[in-house]
Amino acid sequence: MTQSIGDIVAAHLRDVPDFPVPGVTFKDVTPLIGDADAFAAVVRDMAERNRGVVDVVAGIEARGFIFGAALALELGVGFVPVRKAGKLPGETAAVAYDLEYGTATIEVHADAVAAGQRVLLVDDVLATGGTAAAAFELFEKIGASVADFEVVIDLSFLGGRERLADAGRSVHALLTV
Ligand code: AMP
């Protein structure tokens, strides 16, 4: 019997308790990207839903770069990095958002996408949704629109999907836990 994509992801995830801080279980995707067949299955699954309907793939630092760059190649479109503040050399647009303690800022090059282009956002894990919500906002700020958000794992108990849905944002997860 062929495995579902959710089963493939689940079989290649490593839960690391109390990382990076006590009480957090870190979803480690290194076994998944280290397995050629599983990694290819993830990228193909994301590509199937988005072929021909997006102009550019944007990955969120850092693990979103791994899935996003592979997906961009598979779709035959360009790749845009969404980076933490201070990393991009050119003129940037920025959005700040709240973390449990303090705030964070993400940036994209102001000329990374042309006005009206359809962006596919990619990351490894959706937790509270704060990062993703800021990334949606970031592309709107530079005149693009985010067509969809592909994420490998949705930690549903943290409510990220509801938070995005309340703001009219759509998300597709390969595995929801
Ligand atoms: P959030 O903004 O709370 O949705 O957090 C999402 C970002 O933090 C993503 O870029 C994830 O890579 C990372 N992240 C949050 N929680 C976890 C976790 N439990 N395991 C792995 N990465 C996580």
Radius of gyration: 16 Å
Order of helices and strands: HEEHHEHEEEEHEHE
Shape: globular
Tell me the structural class. Answer: alpha/beta
Number of helices: 6
Strand content: 25-35%
- Sheet with most strands: strand arrangement: 5-6-4-3-7-8-9
Ions, cofactors and other bound molecules: adenosine monophosphate
Largest sheet: 7 strands, mixed
Overall number of strands: 9
CATH topology: Rossmann fold
Q: Portion of residues in helices?
A: 25-40%
Low-confidence stretches: none
Alpha-carbon distance between the termini? Answer: 23 Å
Quaternary status: single chain
Number of domains: 1
Average per-residue pLDDT, rounded, comes to 97
Highest CATH level, the class: Alpha Beta
The appropriate CATH architecture is 3-Layer(aba) Sandwich
What does it look like?
- By secondary structure, the protein is an alpha/beta fold.
- The protein has one domain (53-176): Rossmann fold (3-Layer(aba) Sandwich), CATH 3.40.50.
- The chain is built from six helices and nine strands.
- It has helices at 5-11, 30-33, 36-50, 63-75, 130-141, 160-166; strands at 14-17, 25-28, 56-60, 78-84, 92-98, 103-109, 118-126, 145-154, 171-176.
- The strands form two sheets. A seven-stranded mixed β-sheet has the order 5-6-4-3-7-8-9, with helices on both faces. Strands 1-2 form a two-stranded antiparallel ribbon.
- The protein is globular and about 45 Å long.
- Bound molecules: adenosine monophosphate.
- Adenosine monophosphate is lined by residues 24-27, 60, 63, 123-132, 155, 160.
